[in-house]
Structures are given as C-alpha cells and as structure tokens.
Amino acid sequence: MTSKSMDAILAPNGAGRSSAVVAIRACSMRFSVLTLLILAALPARADEPAKGAAYWGAPSADGGRCCATLAEVRNNIDRIDRELVRLMAERQQYVGEAGRFKKDPASVGDPARVDAIIARVRADAAAQRLDPTVAETTFRAMIAAFETFERAEWGKRQAAPAK
C-alpha cells in the first residue's frame, strides 16, 4: 500500500495526515529495519565453505572418486576453467587468422557455418553426456564473442601497414 493510498483511507477529507498514518509508517519502517538486520546476520550460503557431508547422493564425478567436499568440487571446476581459458586463447589465435581470408568485416559472420558448428557441438555434447542445450548456449555465446573479436582484429590489421 502506498503512502497516498493510506492517506486516502485514513484521512479521506484530505485534511492532512492522521496520527494513524504516521504510526503505521513508523511501525512499517521498524519492521523493515528489523528484517534487514535479521537477513544481514544470516550466513551467505554460496560463499560459505561446505562443512560436513553433502545433502544428497554419493560422489559421482571422476568415476566416483570425487568429490567428498565442496572445496574439492570447486578446485576441480577451477582446474577445468583454467584449461578452458587456455583452449579459448588457442582458438582466438585461429580466429584472428581467419580474418586474413575475409574481404571485409561484414564477411566475418557465416550463419551456415555457425549452424554446422552447433549441430556438431550438440551431437558431441550428447555423446559426452553433456546437456546439448548447455553446450549450444555456451558455444553460441563464444562464437558471438569471437566474431566481435575477429571484426576488431580485421580492422586493426587493415589499419596497420603491410609487412
């Protein structure tokens, strides 16, 4: 309920705010502050290291050898992320090279090639027991980012004097 609607209900003649409106607002403010204090005191679950056993299931990653703790899970995710970044850096080198074969930045995007890549990625994902939608979404975002990079790289190389 807004303060204007409270005023209309409790002071319909428009003669100003009634003491009831002021009291309701003060009570509402105290409740809001109390709620914020309680919420601030609660632990931030996502940042808090897991203590004790998992809430459900048994280890299933790496043939059931991982993971006994949330820290172990996160260490493995961080290791994989480092490898993904290394592979993306390698991919970027080839994306930069692709620009040498394109006559202008408008020829960077190739929807037919993107469709072929996505079809292959979805099939590869299913074979690796990765959700194909996760793979497709990730690859579409990566392809879009690399197309932006390739256009910028094309422009830089055209502006630079030939060697």
Report on this structure.
With 163 residues, the chain is mainly alpha-helical. Helices cover 64% and strands 0% of the residues. α3 packs across α5 and α4 runs antiparallel to α5.
Could you outline the blueprint of secondary structure elements for this entry?
Elements: H1 3-10, H2 19-41, H3 70-98, H4 111-127, H5 132-159
Give the amount of beta strand, in percent.
under 5%
What would you call the shape? elongated
Please give the alpha-carbon distance between the first and last residues.
70 Å
Largest sheet, in brief, is: none
Element order: H for helix, E for strand:
HHHHH
Poorly predicted runs of 5 or more residues = 33-37, 39-44
Give the beta-strand count: 0
| Residue-averaged pLDDT | 79
* Number of discrete helical segments: 5
Radius of gyration: 29 Å
Q: Structural class from helices and strands?
A: mainly alpha
State the helicity in percent bands: 55-70%
Can you tag this structure with a few keywords?
mainly alpha; 163 residues; 5 helices; 0% strand
